[in-house]
Every structure is written in C-alpha cells, then in structure tokens.
Input
Amino acid sequence: MLQLDENKTEIPVENPDMRGLELVRETPQRERARRTTDALRLRNREAIARLWNGREELLAGLNAPQAWIPAKYFYDTLGSQLFDAITSLPEYYLTRSEAAIFSRDIGDIARAVGTGCNLIDLGAGNCEKAASLFASLKPAHYVAVDLSADYLETTLARLRHQFPDIAMSGLGLDMTEGLSFPDSVPDSRRLIFYPGSSIGNFTPVDAAGFLSDLRRECRQHGGLLIGVDLIKEKAILDAAYDDALGVTAAFNLNALNNVNSVLGSDFDVRDWRHCGFYNQTMSRAEMHVETRLAVDVSWPGGSRRFEAGERIHTENSYKYSLEEFGALLRRAGFRSVTAWTDQRNWFALFYATA
Ligand code: AVJ
Output
C-alpha cells in the first residue's frame, strides 16, 4: 500500500494534455456529462439507441480533417462480448492485474474503506467485479449504474437472491442528463466504484472534470475506488492493444458496423485494417482504423473520400504514473489518496476520500 502524501509538491506535468487542467472549471457541465457516457459500457440495442443519439457528433467526427469516431460506438452487444473476450487474452493484462490486486489486498482495502457503505458501481455491466467485493465490504446498499436498466434488472434479480442482506437497485442512467444520482441513491457513506481503467478513455483534462463530479457525488464521508492502468514499456502496451489473435482488431473494426447501423453509411469492414499502439509522447494507447485502399463512404445526406492509408481515430486509452493520477485526484478535491499496485507495477487501484 502506498500513501500518497497530500503535502507533496506538485509533480511537473509533462503530458501536454494536462497543461490545460485549470480550464476544467470552465467546461460546460452538460458537455462534460455527455462525454462521461463514452466511458460506460453498453449492453443492448435499446440502451445503445439512447446513447448513440449524438448523430451530429458522429458526423462532425467523420467530416473532421483528422476523422474520428467516439469510443462509445464499440459497445453494441457484439462489441461488449468482444471486449469480454479481450479481457481473457494473454496480452491484455489490465483485467487480470486489477483482479490480482483485489485478491491480494482485499483485507487492506476493506480496512481502508470500512464496511456498511453504499456502493455505487459505474458501468456495472454484469456486476461481477462489485459482487466479488460484497463478502469483504459488506455494503448496506448496492447501486448498479449502467445504460441498460433492463440488463441490470436481470443481473440484480440473481444477486438479490444470493445476497439477501444487501439492498440493491439498478440505475439505467443516461449521464447526458448530468452526473447526479436520484434521491433513491442513499446519501451517506457513498463508495463510488469505477474499475477497469475506463477513466483512461477521457483526456486528462476531461478526467479531471469527471473526477470532480464524482467527488461532489461522494458527498461527505464518501470515497472513490478506481482502477487505473499505469505507464509501462511500449512493447507491452503495443501487444495489449494489438493482440496476436486479432480480437482487438475485431472489436475496433466493429465500430464501423455500428456507425453503419446508426448513420446508414456504407463502410465495408473488409476495406479497413486495425491499428493499435502505444503513443509514448501522449502517454496513451491509441486505436485507429486504416483504409487499405482509397474508398468513398456515403450516408444519407453526405459522403467522404478516404485516401489509401488514411485513418479514423477510434480510441484513446491514457496511462498514468502513480504520482500523476494521485495529483489528479487531489486536484479534483479528494483528500487522502491511497494506492495499491500489482506485483509488476502495471496497474493501480486508488482509494480516495472525499
Ligand atoms: C474498457 C476503456 C478500459 O482502454 O483498455 C480494450 C477498452 N480498447 N482494448 C481499454 C479497450 C482496446 C479498454 N477500456
């Protein structure tokens, strides 16, 4: 366990995206809230229809000189299944490293967090990660937040049966409405749980904004338990985002199918190849789709030509040092910050108190 000293002088910020941190307060809350949805995983068509209503954002991205597609377009049902498959790949160490921290340090973590909290699980999905903490954390109430309320209800029905002492609610929260929880979410002793390094999909500036929203939602005596992928050797990160079996490639290219179904465009997946690598200068893994030949892509009301080798940027996954992320948490207003890492120092679990 590592106690990150509150009074430590700020570490120099080398990441260019972090220079604008002070601007965060000026970012309109609505815009920030909309972006938070990118980090959530979706489960079914109904939820996706709700989340993918940002047709304008998608069109702006496709028409931009450097084209991009919001990362949320990965997660239709197939995309979520492909992501689950990614977590079993030998190259994708993130999920296993985080699990290793939980299994080795759960006693320590439970002592820091205490029992009887109101556990709020962001992007709960199948609720598996949170459920594995129930025995140690003994939450009074479990609130599973995901875009698909229907999917959550099925999972919660099973969990309620298994853990009759824990009050449970599912929240099909569309964070485009802002990140504030309804009155049904208990006010006291909130523990917000945000595992998997999903925070990496935000730029550091947006992450700072999102973390201060979370800080606010923690109220008094609350805390945040968050998983963060750490900076490491490029070769390891390159492999994690470009695996030998091509599962990450399928996950990435599937975004084009999802764009077709939303926009009515005619991307042919066969024309595109996966690009996944670590950008050391930016401290982030990047995914792009790259066209193998010059193509014209059309949709109702528009079209675009992509020259051979041209790319569409589909995801950023930022990596942090322990010090950088600790500083980000303190800037967001969290007070004491504790971190646990796995044996190789590849992944960190932070506990920050409001
Ligand atoms: C779910 C956002 C944490 O960034 O590592 C996996 C998504 N992208 N392989 C990540 C992802 C490529 C993943 N997160």
